[in-house]
Specification:
single chain; 161 residues; mainly alpha; 0% strand
Length: 161
C-alpha cells in the first residue's frame, strides 16, 4: 500500500534522529514529535479513509495521556511519551500486538547493545559527550522506539502485511 511506503520514508530520518538524540542527550526534541504528527496527517489525508485518520489520531491522544501518567510516576521520560504518541498513528490497530512484539524485542536488543557499547573504551572516547553513558539505570528508550517503528513500517511496506 502506498501509505506504508510513504509512512516509512517519513519516519526513518526523524526516528534515526530521535534515537541518536536520545543516546547523546537523553532527550528527544519536541520538533521531532511534531514533525512526525504533521507527516502522518499530510500522508494519511491523501492515502487513508478520513475516519481511519481520525481514529488513529484519537489513539495517539490516548497514548499521549497514558505516557504523561507514566512520566508523572517516573516510569517513562517525557520525550519518550511524546515520541510514542507521535508514532502511534502510524500503527494500524489490527497490528498493535505485532508492533508490541517488535517493540519488546527492540527494547531488549537495544538495551543489551547499549550496555555492551558503554563498556567499549574506543567507542566511549569517540562519543565522550553522550549523556546516556553516564545515565546510570536510566536508558535512552528513544532508540528502542525508533528501531521498533522503523522495523514495523519496513515489514508493512515490503511484505504488504
Amino acid at each position: 500500500m502506498l501509505a506504508d511506503y510513504l509512512f516509512l520514508a517519513a519516519t526513518v530520518p526523524l526516528s534515526i534522529y530521535a534515537g541518536w538524540s536520545d543516546l547523546k542527550t537523553m532527550t528527544i526534541p519536541n520538533w521531532v514529535s511534531i514533525a512526525l504528527i504533521a507527516a502522518f496527517i499530510v500522508i494519511a489525508l491523501f492515502t487513508l479513509p478520513f475516519d481511519t485518520v481520525l481514529w488513529r489520531l484519537g489513539g495517539a491522544a490516548i497514548v499521549l495521556l497514558v505516557g504523561f501518567i507514566l512520566n508523572a510516576i517516573k516510569v517513562l521520560g517525557g520525550g519518550d511519551a511524546k515520541y510514542l504518541a507521535a508514532i502511534a498513528p502510524f500503527i494500524a490497530l489490527h497490528d498493535l500486538s505485532a508492533f508490541m512484539v517488535i517493540f519488546s524485542v527492540s527494547l531488549i536488543v537495544t538495551l543489551a547493545l547499549h550496555r555492551v557499547a558503554m563498556r567499549i573504551k574506543p567507542l566511549r572516547r569517540a562519543t565522550p559527550d553522550w549523556v546516556s553513558w553516564e545515565a546510570g539505570r536510566n536508558f535512552p528508550m528513544g532508540i528502542s522506539i525508533a528501531t521498533a517503528i522503523i522495523v514495523y513500517l519496513a515489514i508493512k511496506a515490503f511484505n504488504g502485511a
